[in-house]
Amino acid sequence: MFFQPLPAKDKITFTNRIGKKETGTKIRFRNGFCHDGLTSVDIQEIVKAGGRIIKILDGIVYEENFKTPPYRDYILILRDLRNKYKREGNITTSRHLWSEATLKANNDSHVINYEKVNDSQFIVKINEEEKEFDCTPPKSIRLTPSHLGSFVLSHSKKIMNNFIHVIDGFYKPEIYFTDTDSLYISSSNWDKLNEAGLVSENDYCKGKNDYGDGGIIFGLYLVPKVKYNIILTSDGVLKEKKTFKGYSNDKISVEDYIRLASGHDVTNEFKKPWVKSFTNGVVIPDDKQKKVFRSYLNLVKRRT
After folding, report:
1. Could you read off the pLDDT of 33-50 as tens digits, one per residue?
2. What is the DSSP string of 15-48?
3. N or C: which end of the chain has fewer CB within 10 A?
4. Bridge partner list, 293
């Protein structure tokens, strides 16, 4: 069974199950095409009906091509480089290693310096000197292999399945919420994970409690990337932790989560993103844009 296959799709002509020629899009592997696939719901139904998962492989099949998994060493190299650049104060290079946005582009000499005020505002010092710009597109240089993201994601899913299997999460409702690399479960399962050797603060591919000796006492999980938690710290202090993809945390209140859970739409206004160009440097628009999160989308996603 393969989870998260290589997300490369080709439009091809093939012979379908009844022997007729058909043109469509197929997921491509190294040595052929994926004829059919199962969703996570399909897999759960098969397991509930008595089916067994004999073996879980990574999304990209390397067992016949490589003697050792290539992604592990690569990720360790990136981790060491990131720590090295952080120690040297080279934040620009450190962020580019992990594909995070950097406001000061290497080819934009208009921006002299920038200082972060909060999550959505920066103080920018711009060079007003007039000069001639070379508008020749720079050569695209990829420092990481294009399929690295597939390796990382499929490897993460494989690790997550190990945790789910130990707490019997495939059969019992032990998981409240899940993301690419996190599980929201009861603290009663912690001993099971520890006995299975899946818990460590520093080891690679091991789990840890992000809240230390504390934990979540209230959680509102609406859709993927949209959740609200109240945390009780080890010092007995209550804190809130908000996640709302597409919105800034300072623009979202607990009332918005309650409205969405109650079937109402959530609307907010935001400043439009900065625009960078060779001629004008960084341009900060004055007008705003409106984002609406529809409650019916929330209900549809929760039902599926």
Report:
1. 666 666 666 777 777 777
2. E-TTS-EEEEEEEEETTEE------HHHHHHHHH
3. C
4. 266
